[in-house]
Design a protein that fits this description.
alpha/beta; seven-stranded parallel beta sheet; TIM Barrel; two-stranded antiparallel ribbon; single chain; 9 strands; about 270 residues
């Protein structure tokens, strides 16, 4: 499960939450460690005492504003010029931490992809390469989170020169939340570059220009039978990480997702 799903204030709260969900592995938000809000040694001690493993890391970028679709389009990821230098510094600290923790994968949102014939597109793709190189220098793979773009746009960008090492963290709910196409078709199109998925569900918006609504896994529009069938048809193992970012019964919702995944052959 994603460590940020239950908003833990300290490592012991995180370990207790993970255990309450009947799971023993987490994708860890690395920002509390790089900012020194959390103590690295205490986290490792808590995890080791409860036999909890870290499957991957997650990095956020500076200055993101999720108050509206328009605001996150402008502020999300590494597009804003005013935060570019600081985001490079954050990436360096995160990559070094990931290597220290023995992680091979870190994911993040790069931001909305501009039109390919624009200067903004060139800037964004160049910046993604810089961030990927920072992680690669530490032996860590960088994966982009899906959802803020159509699958075709993401694949076209990742097929550019010097993008071959960059992979994908696929989130079917984000495709629905942002109105970016059918998750089933998107997964089929992107699966060769997918190295991890977020198990999250949603229903689409009825008001153009606004987000859809996240719901517990199995209660939304994601076709989980098709989703897991596509994953299981691959020659590689693709980890499934449960993510829940809304609602006031998150432990219950994560257990529901875990049960649904188990019905399709995925168990903690």
């Amino acid at each position: 499960m994603c460590s940020w799903s239950l908003n833990p204030a300290k490592p012991t709260e995180l370990t207790n939450a993970i255990q309450s969900c009947g799971i023993n592995s987490t994708q860890l938000a690395l920002d509390p460690l790089t900012s020194h809000e959390w103590n690295h040694d205490l986290l490792i001690e808590a995890f080791e005492s409860e036999n909890i493993t870290i499957c991957s890391g997650m990095m956020t970028t500076i200055g993101e504003d999720y108050s509206s679709m328009d605001s996150i389009r402008l502020t999300g990821g590494i597009r804003p010029d005013e935060h570019w230098e600081a985001n490079q510094s954050r990436a360096k600290a995160t990559a070094e931490l990931a290597r220290t923790l023995g992680l091979s994968l870190v994911t993040f949102h790069a931001g909305f992809i501009p039109q390919p014939d624009s200067n903004e597109y060139i800037t964004l793709t160049d910046r993604i390469k810089v961030i990927a190189n920072i992680f690669e220098s530490q032996g860590v793979t960088l994966a982009l989170e899906t959802g803020q773009e159509h699958a075709e746009s993401l694949l076209e960008m990742l097929d550019l020169p010097n993008m071959s090492t960059i992979q994908i963290n696929f989130d079917p709910a984000n495709m629905i939340l942002y109105g970016m196409g059918d998750p089933a078709r998107a997964l089929e199109l992107l699966v060769d570059r997918v190295v991890q998925v977020h198990m999250k569900d949603a229903v689409p918006t009825s008001i153009p220009g606004t987000w859809g609504i996240e719901v517990p896994a199995g209660d939304g529009h994601v076709d989980w039978g098709h989703f897991f069938s596509t994953l299981q048809s691959q020659q590689k193992t693709i980890p499934v990480v449960i993510e829940r970012e809304s609602g006031d019964q998150r432990i219950t919702d994560i257990i529901q997702a875990r049960t649904l995944a188990a019905k399709h052959g995925y168990t903690p």
